[in-house]
Amino acid sequence: MLSKAAKKVSQSQRSAFFALLRTHDFLVPTSAHASDQKELAKRVAEDVAEEADALIARYRPALPVACERAPVHLQMASLALGAQRTLLREADKEAFGWTGGEQLRARSVVAGALGVVAAPDGSTPYGAPVMWLPNRMAHTFSWNKAATLERMVDNFQADLGLAFELEQIEPAPSRRMVRCLYTDFFRAEGEPLLIPVFRALHEATFKGVPSFSFETSDEGPDCTFWFK
Question: Contact, 82 vs 55, CB < 8 A?
């Protein structure tokens, strides 16, 4: 059972996702099959919610019992996958006349709802730099930069919760992510195309920290957060 605070976070996350999901950027009816864009967006949102809820019901029993952050992360991944699949199903309909490249275009719209830029050309997604200035200022004006970095990393780990696992590596406070709910979820669903979108969210957390660099791998550890 989620606490009231966790439920509020979950509800806010869902509302924000649908508010930012620009269905009309992907599903543009041909002139011969013009339709009401508001009605289309409403139908797509309902289908996305239904698919996401089914995914949540399927995977929630496997989440760490004592972790309130895990259901929030699962919902975000489920909304993204539900949106990707729903948009692609709609694109198959005659009214939209898509001829190719739908998966990357759909991913671009889904990523946008998460605050990530994922160009339809397949280039590496990157997160909106909303943390760049706060991170740079916190680092620049800190009397103890090492302690500040440790605190930032600890806060990140706490926000992730128990469905993720980070191991300490040198130089401190570098971390290697050896278990990631997002990656495990998308691989289990056979949808690896969305993994880079969520890795971009991880990377964006520390943007602006002068010593920070980010490394990903499709073999072994999921990604590494370097502070050198």
Answer: yes
Is residue 33 predicted with pLDDT exceeding 60?
no
Q: The whole model's pTM is what?
A: 0.92
What is the tens place of the pLDDT at every residue in 84-95?
A: 999 999 887 766
Average predicted confidence (pLDDT) for the chain: 91
> Across the strands, what pairs with 216?
223
Q: Which residues pair with 127 in a beta bridge?
A: 116
